[in-house]
Amino acid sequence: MTDTRLLSGIQYWVGLNLIPGIGPAKLKKLLDVFGDLELAWRAAPAELARAGLDSKTVESVTQHRQRIDLAKHMDRIDRLGVDVLTWQDSRYPERLRHIYASPPLLYVRGVLAPEDDWSIAVVGTRRASVYGRQCAEHIVSDLARAKVTIVSGMARGIDTYAHRASLQAGGRTIAVLGCGVDVVYPPENAKLMDEIIECGAVVSDYPLGTGPDGVNFPTRNRIISGLSLGTLVVEAGETSGALLTAGYALDQGREVFAVPGKIFDRSSKGTNRLIQQGAAKLVCCAQDVLEELNLSMVPQQLEMREVLPENRTEDILLRLLSTDPTHIDEIGRSSGLPIAEVSSTLAMMELKGMVRHVGGMNYVTARPL
């Protein structure tokens, strides 16, 4: 176990993550009351109850923590080269931090990089048709070449095709698992998982050793959409889990896209209905996604982010912007700056990938705040 992790108290985050009944809401209660999870870990049952935990959860905590060997768990995490990011870590993905029930900690193999700010989730059926596979590979390849990170769930079918197409195009990809990051599922994706770790990241909020239980996958879908600017559904039946991911994306205020399919194909009923109901924008090629999310200049934004320094005007404008669209006139009034200066600075900030123009002279932040 590393000294750094001991000093930061990550072992107590890991320990509480191992206890059934401690989810995001209850862990936040413990943080709010105790301020430090080591204190919560060592708290007496009465103190846990006063912190707002119900009797069943209090009993679960007191019983399980006696049997959990924190040093053993942390040693295994270190041996496998797993990084653990918590809510309190500055490296925790900012976009994910603000979703409902954001995971208190993420186990990461590989690296979550700054360029993953520009990411798209690509999901679909496990029983992909030839058409679905072709669509996934064609669209993802072009997105990857445009320097967009592809997020998916490493499941059979569309997920697997999306990850592979991204890697083959030289792009980055992130796999969000419904099991521990030390578990390969499906087993035939062992080589793919190694390649993803090398050129992206494999992440999960489930402890090491957690198997691929069916109940895990629906909730992990919120992370797939939560990491992404938008979610593309390539092929999905009426009961496909990909529709759950689309639902999470909509709840999170993210864009949803869908590839249309034949009206007689069962695997296209879900995607066609998303389009029919107006929940998803119809997509025929990668450019449809890039234009809708203003991602057509990601390579230039990556380059400009590194070479152009920020100044006082940029700092002022960044403080006034959020993920909610703000009109340029309102930005000008709030900043007290000349509108010409605001306009020219916003244009440069958009090139640097700091802000995005979302239409109608409205702007949002494109970077983590």
The gist of it:
The protein is built from 19 helices and 12 strands. The chain is of the alpha/beta class and 369 residues long.
List segments where confidence is low: pLDDT < 50 over at least 5 consecutive residues.
1-7
Radius of gyration: 22 Å
| Spatial shape | globular
The end-to-end distance, rounded to whole angstroms, is: 32 Å
Overall mean pLDDT? 92
Beta strand count: 12
Major sheet size, sense and barrel closure = 9 strands, mixed
Number of helices: 19
Strand order of the largest sheet: 1-2-6-5-4-3-7-8-9
Instruction: Output the CATH class name of the largest domain.
Output: Alpha Beta
| CATH domain topology of the largest domain | Rossmann fold
Strand fraction equals 5-15%
- The helix content is 40-55%
Question: How many structural domains can be distinguished in the coordinates?
Answer: 3
Using the 3D structure, state the CATH architecture of the largest domain.
3-Layer(aba) Sandwich
Would you tell me the structural class of the helices and strands? Answer: alpha/beta
Provide structural commentary.
This protein is an alpha/beta fold and 369 residues long. The chain folds into 3 domains: 3-71, DNA polymerase, domain 1 (Orthogonal Bundle); 110-292, 3-Layer(aba) Sandwich (Rossmann fold); 298-365, Winged helix-like DNA-binding domain superfamily/Winged helix DNA-binding domain (Arc Repressor Mutant, subunit A, Orthogonal Bundle), CATH 1.10.10.10. 48% of the residues lie in helices and 13% in strands. The protein is built from 19 helices and 12 strands. It has helices at 3-8, 10-17, 24-34, 37-42, 45-50, 55-67, 70-79, 94-97, 130-145, 158-168, 190-198, 216-226, 241-251, 269-276, 286-292, 298-307, 312-320, 328-335, 339-351; strands at residues 83-86, 105-110, 119-123, 149-152, 173-176, 200-204, 230-233, 255-258, 281-282, 326-327, 355-357, 362-365. The strands form 2 sheets. The chain has a 9-stranded mixed sheet, with helices on both faces. Strands 10-12-11 form a 3-stranded antiparallel sheet. Helix 2 (10-17) packs across helix 7, helix 9 (130-145) packs parallel to helix 10 (158-168) and helix 12 packs across helix 13. The longest helix is centred in the middle third of the chain and has 16 residues, at 130-145. The chain starts with a helix and ends with a strand. Residues 1-7 have low confidence and may be disordered.
